[in-house]
Amino acid sequence: MSACVFAFILTLSALSRATVESGFVSPPTNVRLTSYNMNLVLRWSPPEGAASNLLYSTEYRTSVTEYSVGFVNISTLECDFTRLSHLFISEHGKYFGRVRAQVGSESSAWVESNNITLDKDTIIGSPNVSLISSGATIEVSIKDPVFAISALRNVYIYATYNITYWKHSQPEKARHISNIKQNPFVLNDLDPWTKYCVQVQINTERNPIPSKPSGIVCERTTNEEEADWVPALVSLIFSVAAMALVVIAVVYRKSISNILCPKDALPQHFKEYLLTPHKVSIITDDTSEDGSPLEATKMTCSKQLDVTVFVDGRTRDLTASEEQ
Ligand SMILES: *[C@@H]1O[C@H](CO)[C@@H](O)[C@H](O)[C@H]1NC(C)=O
Ligand SMILES: *[C@@H]1O[C@H](CO)[C@@H](O)[C@H](O)[C@H]1NC(C)=O
Ligand SMILES: *[C@@H]1O[C@H](CO)[C@@H](O)[C@H](O)[C@H]1NC(C)=O
Ligand SMILES: *[C@@H]1O[C@H](CO)[C@@H](O)[C@H](O)[C@H]1NC(C)=O
Questions:
Q1: Which of 27, 97, 211, 219 is the most buried (most CB within 10 A)?
Q2: Is 11 helix (H, G, I), strand (E, B) or coil?
Q3: Membrane-spanning regions, if any (predicted)?
């Protein structure tokens, strides 16, 4: 109980020192303007020995405008100006903030912060990285940090990624690829059946400090050819089987046709009887076909063809010369 009373008296005396004793409210201390992912946050510490019930008011300005009202009568020790709907914040603007403490109707003097140029000074947060392994390659997909105003690709058109990757078992042998513009990016100089870990940072031309590094994510590669190999083998097996079927069909054509139309079922003499007159008739047919009528037909055809071509060529020549 006595401790409580003692603390109460201490607080009272502190409050009276901060407000009454010196005749005015002591100003906040350690006032600084910061930016993370393009927000604009003013932070401060309470006046020394101040009571905990102090209220604060904040204002902001650019390097070329007067101060405008920010947050009024807040009890927190920070405020984010990008949350003010009436404030237009430019990605490239230079900003100042100021804050004063208030007790009742009394106010401290204003304390001005440092200035910051948003795109140059903001701290870029870490990108979010996910990996997809395919055979002996790993696809790295990068999600840019979300900005309070605008988007990373709008503010930093020439932003690039710096990918660091290493075998999980050999973190000391890390490799870097910087200046990467593609997203997703494929790592393809990897060993099969190996666990790799990846970390990504964003570099911008305008902001000298690279982003916070991403979290480390790891993924295992599989067999180098597996992806292309399996379907290729399956189609190879199918085409070999199809070719084998064709070969079998050709080689055993006679046997197959024998099975389908069994010749040997007929007695030998009956077969001879059937075949002999048939052969004769075929020979007769052949002779008649190979005779002069066919050659005569060929001659006629070639003659007709010659004439046609000759006439055509002449006609074209004539037409061409007429046109000239
Ligand atoms: C802030 O607090 C002061 C003192 O209590 C009061 O006079 C003023 O009206 C308040 N302002 C707003 C915008 O609430
Ligand atoms: C803004 O801050 C920088 C360094 O923090 C300082 O050099 C510069 O003078 C400041 N600009 C103004 C207009 O106060
Ligand atoms: C990264 O993205 C994944 C999937 O979208 C999400 O689950 C995770 O919370 C994100 N991590 C961070 C740090 O944003
Ligand atoms: C890329 O990141 C690695 C690890 O953070 C760093 O050592 C390297 O200097 C960076 N390279 C560039 C060009 O930023």
A1: 97
A2: helix
A3: 229-252
Q: How far is the CA of 286 from the centre of ligand 4 (A)?
A: 88
The residues with which 94 forms a beta bridge, in sequence order, are 117
Q: Give the Cα separation of 298 and 295 in Å (integer).
A: 5
Cα–ligand 2 centroid distance for 279 (angstroms): 114
Burial class of residue 117 (count of CB atoms within 10 Å of its CB; 0-12, 13-18, 19+): middle
In a domain, 7, yes or no: no
Query: Considering the domain boundaries, does residue 1 fall inside one?
Result: no
Encode pLDDT of 147-182 as tens digits. 999 999 999 999 999 999 999 999 999 999 999 999
Instruction: Provide the residue range defining the domain that includes 113.
Output: 18-121
Considering every ligand atom shown, identify the ligand nearest to the alpha carbon of residue 214 and give its number. Answer: 3
* Total number of domains constituting the chain: 4
Whether 73 lines ligand 1, by a CB cut-off of 6 Å, is: yes
| Distance between Cα 126 and ligand 3 center (Å) | 11
- Together in a domain, 208 and 240: no
Name which of 77, 96, 103, 76 is nearest 35 in CA terms: 96
pLDDT tens digits for range 27-49: 999 999 999 999 999 999 999 88
Q: Is the same domain home to 235 and 305?
A: no
Give a yes or no: residue 199 inside a domain.
yes
List ligand 4's pocket residues with C-beta within 6 A. 162, 164, 176, 178, 201, 203, 210
pTM: 0.65
Do 144 and 189 reside in the same domain of the chain?
A: yes
71 part of a folded domain? yes
> What CATH number does residue 101 fall under?
2.60.40.10
